[in-house]
Amino acid sequence: MNIAANNPARNTKVMNRFDLTSRLVAKLNDEEAVIGGIGNTNFDLWAAGHRPQNFYMLGSMGLAFPIALGVALAQPNRRVFALEGDGSLLMQLGSLTTIATLAPDNLTMVVMDNGVYQITGAQPTPAAAVADIVAIAVASGLSNSTWAADEEDFERLIDQSMSASGPTLIGVRIDDKPGTGTTRRDPVQIRERFMHGMGVRELL
Amino acid sequence: MAVAEENTSPEASEKSWHGVVLQTLKRNDIRLVPYVPDRVLTTLIRNLHADPFFTTFPTAREEEAVGIVSGAWMGGMRGAVLMQTSGFATLANILASLAVPYQIPLIMFVSERGTLGEFNYGQSLVCRTMRPVLDSLAMEHHTATRLDEFEFIVDRSIKQAITTQAPVALILSPLLTGGKVFDK
After folding, report:
1. Nearest to A92 among B64, B73, B96 (CB)
2. What distance in Å separates residue A72's CA from the closest CA in chain B?
3. CA dihedral over B143, B147, B151, B152, signed as positive or negative
4. What H or E segment, with its residue span, contains residue A169?
5. What is the pLDDT of residues B35-68, one digit of tens each?
6. Chain A residue numbers touching B34 (CB-CB < 8 A)
């Protein structure tokens, strides 16, 4: 995305949300939880292949990381991934400090950064031209925060996070393409299936 | 009332409103208690931190705390959120898009400011938005004013939230807590 081209992470490759989400999902083999943030982020998670351990947000912009933190605290032996857009994260920057303080080692956060509110018409975010989200994360106390240089680097960082001794945040520069699928908007079923996927509930 | 609030010995806290909250949370296996602090909640927060049963910590915003306990609930861990009236006023969007439609038994304790001796006009205005928001979403809420009823209200409300998978707001009136007064 051109708007992001002037910020300090300009040496990172511009990738694609659906491709990266598919790469992540392909790696999952231990019933890992994945929390998909509002809009395109969870649409692409849905499109990458539904699994009962996926939770799709249909609102509450900015809460993917806090929800994932809750899951990670409740189930310290399960790896929890959270996928969030840059615009969403800007709504809850404070949550980075909470996560840094609690420091769960089973939490991996991915920020899909295209510098725009793609779903509302691709308006630039206030951060797009001036801020570096990974630097914000580091300054919030999440020392294990890194931009992924390219797809291979993204996969490497995901693998590395699985055995990290604290929470991991991975920034990825993405293009301005819309989401690939559309999540079925049935909140109760999403929640019930997710709880089943977490081993907390039997389905009726 | 201020004297009772400051008394933190375990024996006395059994008889204080904050002692009732702590014991009732524990009895209902509610371990995770994120909060945005309030003067009235100070003793409760201190006692929660002192008790290893609880995982309790501050969050930057009330929304964040709601997200955390919602995630924890789905992972099998029960939680409750502590806040004050003005914090509740930031929650309409996520009550309407997360707690209510996903049927999450979100348990909220709201220390009530803005009434019965409020000294800040803005607080009294924001207080008036609270019950209309709760009512507009048909959310269960109770205003606790008396210590002799308090344990019943808290215990039954927690159990109802969990069994009906519906959020509940327990509003802690200055009649119960003493509230915050001008000279504090």
Report:
1. B64
2. 8
3. negative
4. strand A168-173
5. 999 999 999 999 999 999 999 999 999 999 999 9
6. 98
Chain-chain contact of B74 with A63 (C-beta, under 8 angstroms): no
State the Cα–Cα distance between residues A21 and A112, nearest whole angstrom. 10
Q: Are B80 and A165 in contact (CB under 8 A)?
A: no
- Residues of chain B positioned with their CB less than 8 A from the CB of A68: 71
Interface membership of B28 toward A (CB under 8 Å)? no
Contact: A60, B67; criterion CB under 8 Å: yes
pLDDT tens digits, residue range A70-121? 999 999 999 999 999 999 999 999 999 999 999 999 999 999 999 999 999 9
B81–A contact, CB cutoff 8 A: no
d(CA B123, CA B86): 7
Q: Do B75 and A98 touch (CB under 8 A)?
A: no
B103: left (phi over 0), alpha (psi -120 to 50) or beta: left
DSSP letter, residue A121: T
Contacts of A98 in chain B (CB under 8 A): 34, 57-60, 64, 68
Q: Residue A203: its pLDDT value, please?
A: 86
Q: How far is CA A45 from CA A5, A78, A203, B177, in A?
A: 26, 19, 22, 46
Identify whether the C-beta of residue B74 lies closer than 8 Å to the C-beta of residue A70.
yes
Inter-chain touch A188–B65, beta carbons under 8 Å? no
To the nearest whole angstrom, how far is the Cα of A78 from the nearest Cα of chain B?
A: 10
Instruction: Give the pair of three-digit tokens for residue B84.
Output: 């004050």
Q: What is the chain A residue with the closest CA to B166? A: A188
DSSP state of A13: P
Q: B104 — alpha (psi -120 to 50), left (phi > 0) or beta? A: beta
| Closest residue in A to B80 (Cα–Cα) | A70
Q: Which pTM does this prediction carry?
A: 0.94
Contacts of A186 (CB under 8 A, 6+ apart): none
**Residue B23, Cβ neighbours under 10 Å: how many?**
16
Extract the tokens encoding A68: 């994932």
Alpha helices in chain B (DSSP H): 2-6, 10-13, 17-27, 42-50, 62-74, 85-88, 92-94, 121-136, 147-164, 174-177
